[in-house]
Design a protein that fits this description.
The complex is a heterodimer of chains A (273) and B (232). Chain A is mostly helical and 273 residues long. In chain A, 81% of the residues lie in helices and 0% in strands. The longest helix of chain A has 35 residues. The mean pLDDT of chain A is 88. Chain B is an all-alpha fold. The chains are: A mainly alpha (273), B mainly alpha (232). Chains A and B meet through helix 4 and helix 9 of A and helix 2, helix 3 and helix 12 of B.
């Protein structure tokens, strides 16, 4: 059964307070994901990436464990982001298309509660996926490093979830929303390298065009998180991160998620259905 | 509908069967992407990217259906690849193992010397982590290149710069000056590495032990298996 049907029933029967309406939407969002074979998909992905990492370990002459942990972490990170982003985009698009959202909004439910409920459900899902992805790392890498990697992946997925939610609610269509999410993610992963290239060009540093580009790149860095700082493989294979750094990343993630949630609610309120 | 499916399937299979079979050919090793480009392309995963590039380079001599002798590889390009990999993952030791244990084993003194120079220059960047590859090169310089002065310069570099190296390694100069054969010197080196715990990876121990066995059986002509030897 679909999440909105559950949510409508829960909210219509009035056993929800203001806060528990958000909790009800979150709960059924999570239920919807778990009942649409997402668990199986995550498990299969995990096993495929793990098998590939064993293959990499087999063909390496030395540093086999390092290669295996590095390959698994990088592979599972990108796979988790893909699964999470597509889940958010498809789930919300389906609610738009099925008109379940229209029914929900006809009830005594503030739009902000809908956004917050959906966001909370997807964030819970992100935490579960990050925890599952980190399980094999408990054997492939030191346990504290695996824990740090898992926390950081959950924070990274939270940003992706919030951005995907913002895109799909703003754009209403799956393809443009997915393109924006892909562009945002690639840009944020490459942002530090792009800034370095922009700051230290091999030639033409004094031209107006270069200076304009540099200003643009720096401005972009003010609003886009540099996701290459999150979920770093080197924590697993070289040296684990300082907990203070991890705390900073978690704080930055929370701030960015709040910013995106506010932007989503702002856009959702101005929409006519 | 079923007939359409059957016809389409038959046409597809027929057309594919008529396609010429792929020919195996030794493709030249291309230049690696510039390090400045590799950084953004790695999307913040420099270690995983370096590992994939390493495996690509390692597998290059075994392209589908054809084995490319190392001797035929363009060593300037190989060094460019190894440098790019080390820039992405400076902690990794794999590229230096490939330089000192694989690419330097060709029966071509110029190429051997080139790989040793590469290992020497990379040693300078991180002597405490990379000294053992220079130790391999020191033995090679003495026994393959027959250049005792070069071997001694490597041994002295280890003694002076690799403060964290084992004592025996820092006194390598002694057994380079002694009248040891290549096999004995290699045994001393491997024994020292194992005893000090520098080499603990089972696969690397196996690889190095196999190399010793090859050295024992093949003598000094070449330590590479027949299939890997370059054409004279």
């Amino acid at each position: 059964m679909r999440s909105e049907a559950f949510s409508v029933t829960a909210i219509r029967h009035g056993y929800c307070g203001m806060d528990s309406r958000i909790a009800a939407i979150a709960r059924y969002t999570l239920l919807e994901a778990l009942r649409t074979r997402l668990t199986a998909l995550v498990l299969i992905t995990l096993l495929v990436v793990l098998a590939a990492s064993f293959f990499v370990e087999t063909i390496s002459i030395t540093e086999g464990a390092r290669f295996q942990a590095g390959f698994y972490a990088a592979g599972m990170r990108i796979a988790s982001v893909f699964i999470m982003a597509v889940t958010v985009l498809v789930s919300i698009t389906r609610e738009f298309n099925d008109k379940g959202l229209d029914v929900l909004l006809a009830l005594d439910l503030p739009r902000s509660h809908y956004v917050l409920g959906k966001l909370a459900g997807f964030l819970a899902l992100a935490v579960l996926i990050a925890a599952a992805a980190a399980l094999p790392l408990a054997w492939l890498a030191p346990a504290p490093a695996a824990l740090q990697w898992s926390i950081s992946l959950a924070a990274e997925l939270a940003i992706v979830v919030a951005f995907a939610l913002f895109c799909v609610i703003t754009l209403n269509q799956l393809t443009p929303a997915a393109s924006f999410v892909l562009g945002f993610y690639v840009l944020s992963r490459a942002l530090t390298a792009i800034r370095l290239m922009s700051a230290h060009p091999l030639s033409g540093a004094d031209t107006y065009s270069h200076q304009a580009i540099q200003v643009m790149v720096d401005a972009l860095a003010l609003v886009v998180p540099a996701l290459d700082r999150w979920t770093r493989t080197e924590w697993l294979v070289n040296q684990q991160a300082a907990w203070s750094d991890l705390l900073e990343l978690t704080g930055l993630s929370a701030l960015y998620v709040a910013l995106l949630a506010a932007a989503t609610m702002f856009d959702f309120y101005r929409k006519n259905f | 509908m079923l007939a359409l499916l059957g016809v389409a399937f038959c046409v597809q299979v027929t057309l594919q069967a008529l396609q010429p079979r792929p020919n195996a050919r030794a493709e030249a090793l291309g230049a690696p992407p510039a390090p400045a480009l590799l950084r953004p392309l790695s999307l913040g995963e420099p270690i995983a990217t370096a590992q994939l590039l390493t495996l690509y380079l390692q597998a290059f001599d075994n392209q589908p259906g054809v084995s490319v002798p190392f001797l035929e590889l363009d060593y300037a390009r190989v060094i460019a690849w190894l440098t790019a990999i080390l820039e992405l993952d400076p902690i990794g030791q794999y590229p230096l193992l490939m330089a000192s244990q694989i690419y330097s084993q060709v029966p071509d003194a110029a190429k051997q010397r080139r790989m040793c120079e590469f290992v020497r220059s990379e040693f300078e960047r991180d002597p405490n982590r990379r000294w053992r590859w220079l130790a391999h090169c020191a033995i090679m310089a003495k026994h393959r290149l027959l250049d005792v002065r070069l071997a001694l310069s490597y041994a002295e570099a280890i003694a002076q710069k690799a403060r964290n190296a084992s004592n025996w390694a820092r006194q390598m100069r002694i057994f380079i000056l002694e009248d040891l054969g290549e096999l004995e010197a290699a045994k001393v080196l491997l024994g020292g590495l194992l005893e000090s715990g520098e080499v603990s990876e089972p696969k690397e121990i196996h690889f190095l032990t196999e190399r010793l066995k090859e050295l024992e059986t093949a003598g000094k002509t070449s330590v590479l298996p027949e299939s890997r030897r370059g054409k004279p």
